[in-house]
Write a structure and sequence with these properties.
A 4-stranded antiparallel beta sheet has the order 2-1-3-4, with helices on one face. Helix content is 26%, strand content 20%. It has 4 helices and 4 strands, in the order αβαβαββα. The N and C termini lie far apart (40 Å). It is of the alpha+beta class. The chain is globular and about 40 Å long. 11% of the residues are buried. It has a domain of 76 residues: Rossmann fold (3-Layer(aba) Sandwich). It binds adenosine-5'-triphosphate and magnesium ion. Adenosine-5'-triphosphate binds next to α3. The site of magnesium ion has 3 residues, from α3.
Length: 118
């Protein structure tokens, strides 16, 4: 019974989520994303498609806890998102390699700077 309840509960759960990227934009009511209501079940595969600037990357930053919403509630696996999630990985669309490091040293960078791997 508990397992059935778990399967039914959404893995990703956005409730009326809004994000302004900074205080000035918030004061101006300038939101990068507005009123996102979305539920994704465990194991479900989704794709978000839309024109440049519609908020796809912003949605991923919110889902992975890299950005906190200005308003609304985000739960992942039943728990409120309070910061970067350890269970998620994200390939950024813009290159974020450090040119002065070798390839392998770039790959190892998270092991140097990210808790709890440091
Ligand atoms: N760091 C930021 N500061 C302020 N505004 C931002 C920032 N990053 C994105 N935005 C704005 O948020 C909105 C959504 O941008 P986002 O990057 O999420 O779009 P996208 O759908 O991923 O676009 P693309 O297809 O070009 O990758 C845009 O209006 C963008 O200008
Ligand atoms: Mg993007």
């Amino acid at each position: 019974m508990a397992d059935a309840a778990n399967e039914a509960a959404p893995f990703v759960d956005f409730q009326d989520v809004w994000l302004a990227y900074n205080e000035e934009l918030l004061r101006a009511n300038h939101f990068a994303v507005e009123a996102i209501d979305l539920k994704v079940k465990r194991g479900e595969f989704i794709a978000i498609v839309g024109p440049s600037g519609c908020g796809k990357s912003t949605f991923m930053k919110l889902t992975t806890g890299l950005r906190m919403p200005s308003m609304g509630r985000i739960r992942i696996d039943g728990a409120p998102v309070t910061g970067p999630l350890k269970i998620s990985g994200m390939a950024f669309q813009a290159p974020s390699l450090l040119p002065w490091r070798t390839t392998v040293d770039n790959v190892l960078l998270p092991l140097e700077i990210v808790e709890p791997y440091r």
